[in-house]
Amino acid sequence: MATTEHEIPASSKGIDPDSGPGYGDLASMSPEVPLRAEWVERRQADPVRTQMHYARRGIVTEEMWVVAERERLDPPFVRDEVARGRMIIPANVNHKNLVPMAIGIHARCKINANIGNSAVTSNVDGELEKLARCVKYKADTVMDLSTGGNIDAIRQAILSHSPVPIGTVPIYQAIQEVKKAEDLTPDGLVDMIRRQAEQGVDYMTIHAGILFRHLRLVDRRITGIVSRGGSLMAMWMLAHRKENPLYARFDDILEICRKHDVSLSLGDSLRPGCIHDASDEAQFAELDVLGELTRRAWEKDVQVMVEGPGHVPMDQIPMNIERQIQVCHEAPFYVLGPLVTDVAPGYDHITSAIGAAIAGQHGAAMLCYVTPKEHLGLPNADDVHQGIIAYRIAAHAADVARGRPGAREWDDALSRARYAFDWNEQFALSMDPEVARAMHDETLPHEAFKTAEFCSMCGPKFCSMRISQQVDEYNRRRREEEGQGPEAAH
């Protein structure tokens, strides 16, 4: 079964996911290695196998040990946070090549990257290339939002190659298998959730919080309902004049999640799609329902995080975070952006990263990336790369502001390398080493310039850091004359 808090699981000792300051080097791990296979096998006879179930019984699982090592936390603390619902470990029992990670207020701020085909493009190799970029550039989770053909095969390939948790939005595939949205049945939706759970999906966005009575509340919005899943559920409710089947069948969904340890990501169907619509009655009416659903999930030992806006002006972001934390009982908050302005198509990875950093600072646990193609088209591999880096910057800035272990040390190490003109160390410590090196070498490519005390911006005469080193030498001599040791400089 699982371990007690006093035992270090031997099967997790070989995992070394923490190669850098707070980030796991998953790119070098073979997807064929069944890291979790023996852990899951030992729990085969347990009637409930969710991480929350074990945590509430005082058990520290192997997954919790790995999370504790990655987050630099005590394993019993991780267990207690999972038991409380403030931290989740998305880890479907069928995803056996997964390297466990955690999402929660006391963990590093995480980022999610979206990939997936569309009705216009469908290519397994293309999605695996995007996944490879996600792993290489250290996205913490990946969502497969495929809406085109061959979805099962694409998802199976992604799961087989992914050491990070994979999320989905089951209604997307359910829609693909009917002629029109109105043809969806409650049984069909539940069966699709079961199918994806059996396949190994670690977390699912379920749009169960939008209710029929909420539809009148979007009347004065500029952009209406921008969530694809939310708009599909709204269409279904209008066509059938019945309540949202995901809400009506929520207990059935919980039984599936409970069996396979699928974490729920409670979707924000009524998130604002422009800053005009932010923080309105519709958004907060749904949030109240998500708080109710969070409680219901916890009663079944199902792990939950809650999705949030969207498009929000900077001054409203802290209030949105605080309100979610209160209404949803401190369940982890997973935000898309938020975008802080609507006037920069083509640069929305920047407009949203600004909001993401603020959200992370104030308590958001995971940030869903936005690429330059947002609102414009399906992202390619290069767009995925840009979106991930923008969001890693935002998440790391939030970690520094929140005082997360190891966050500030990374900045300090790079700053020391920069001041010492150790260019190779500076590249190695960079969030995107290849880009940093390429930009330097664009103007000073010769290897001799890797030890030069200047770059092409200032040149040899105007480098402030080189000049400042003369001040350092003056202070060193001054301390010697005054009989002070080197520690006086600190």
What does this structure look like?
- The chain is of the alpha/beta class and 490 residues long.
- It has helices at residues 37-42, 51-56, 62-71, 75-84, 124-136, 151-161, 170-176, 186-199, 228-240, 245-248, 250-260, 281-299, 317-327, 348-361, 381-402, 407-419, 423-429, 433-441, 464-481, and strands at residues 87-88, 103-104, 110-115, 141-144, 166-168, 203-206, 263-266, 304-308, 333-336, 366-368.
- The strands form two sheets. It has an eight-stranded parallel barrel with strand order 3-4-5-6-7-8-9-10, surrounded by six helices. A two-stranded antiparallel sheet has the order 1-2.
Strand-residue proportion: 5-15%
- Nearest-integer average pLDDT: 89
Structural class computed from helices and strand pairing: alpha/beta
| Spans where pLDDT lies below 50 across 5 or more residues | 1-33
CA radius of gyration is: 24 Å
C-alpha termini separation? 50 Å
Reading the helices and strands in chain order gives: HHHHEEEHEHEHHEHHHEHEHEHEHHHHH
Strand order of the biggest β-sheet = 3-4-5-6-7-8-9-10
| Number of alpha- plus pi-helical segments | 19
How many beta-strand elements? Answer: 10
In one word, what is the shape? globular
Let me know the largest β-sheet.
8 strands, parallel, barrel
Helical content (DSSP H or I, runs of 4+)? 40-55%
